[in-house]
Amino acid sequence: MRRGMLAISAAALLLAAACGNGSTTGATQSGEKGGDGKTIALFLPESKTTRYEAFDRPLFEAKVKALCADCKLLYSNADQDATKQQQQVEAALTQGADVLVLDAVDAAAVAPLVNQAKQKNVPVIAYDRLISGIGYEYYVSFNNVRVGEMQGQGLLDALTAKGTVDKGQIVMIHGSPTDPSSADYKKGAHNVLDGKVKIGREFDTPDWSPDKAQQEMEQAITALGRDSIVGVLSANDGMASGAIAAMKRAGYSSMPPITGQDSELAAVQRILSGDQYMTIYLDIRAEAEKSAELAVAVAKGEKPAAPTTVDNGTASVPSFLLDPIPVTADKIAGTIVKDGFYKASDICTPELKDACAKAGIQ
User: What range does the record give for the signal peptide (predicted)?
Assistant: First the structure.
C-alpha cells in the first residue's frame, strides 16, 4: 500500500492535541453529537511510547472531525493498565459508542470486551495490535513480521560492514509479552538472525519500558562482558534509549549497532550522533487516518472492503497492513524530513549541525 504523506508540523499537532482536555489517563470528548452524528471511541494503550499522544491521537481525531463534523469522539489512554482499559471500554459502551477503535493493553485478554461490544451490536476495529480469540470487523496495523525482519537485516548489515558478525554476541531486547505485535517483531528478527549471529541474551520487556530495557542491558553486560557484545536488537526506540544508557554507564566509548522503531525525534538525533544505528519509520498518519475512515464508515453502517485478512487464531479478520521503512542516517532526509514527520529545524540542534549537513538534512 502506498504511504501517505506526513505533512505534520509541531504546531498542528499541538492544536490537534488540544481538542481534548490534555489528560492521558481518562477520557476526553470532542465534537457535538447532532443530526446523524455518531459516537466513536478510541482507546490507546500507554503514553510511555511518544507516538501515541504526539501522533496517533491527534491524527485520528483530526481525520474524524474532517469526515464527520457532528460525530462525537470519546478518547481514553489506559497507561498500560489492562483493568483501567476494561473500565474505559465499558464506560464508552454505556455512553452509547457506535464503534470502538481499540489498541489493547493486553491483546490476548480483551476478547470478553469485544464480546460485550458484539452483544450491543457495536463494531470493533483493532488498532495497531491484533486482538485474538474472537472475530471483529477490521484490523489496521503494519506488516509487523516485516518490521522485525528489517530490524534484523539492518543489524546484520551493520555487523557485516564492521566485520564483527562472528566476533562476539548480540543482545535482543523485545517488547511487551502482552503485545502480539511484539511476538511478530521477534519472529521477524529471528527469521533473519538465527544461524548467522550468536545471541548472548534475549529479553521480553514488560510495558515496552525504557527503564526495564536499561536494567536488562545492564544484566547482559554483567553476564556477557562489555567487550563481547557486538550489537543490540531493540524492538523500539524507547528501549534502545534504555540500552544505550546502560552501555554508557558501563563505559562504552562508542556504541555497537543498535536498532529501533517508531522514528522518535530523540532516536533520529541519536542516529545522526552515532549512538543508534537505525530505526523503523512507520507511517502513523496513514494508520491513524485509515482507522478513522473505517470508524466513521462502520459507525454509519457501511462495510468497506479490506485488501487482505489476518488469522488471529479464531477468525480471519479483514485487514489493512501498511509498509514499514528502515531508516539509517543516510535515509533520514529522503523519508522522515521529506514527509514532514519532523522538520530539519526540529532535528538539527547546534550539536548536530555537521552531522545534519553530512546527511543532507537542510
Answer: 1-22
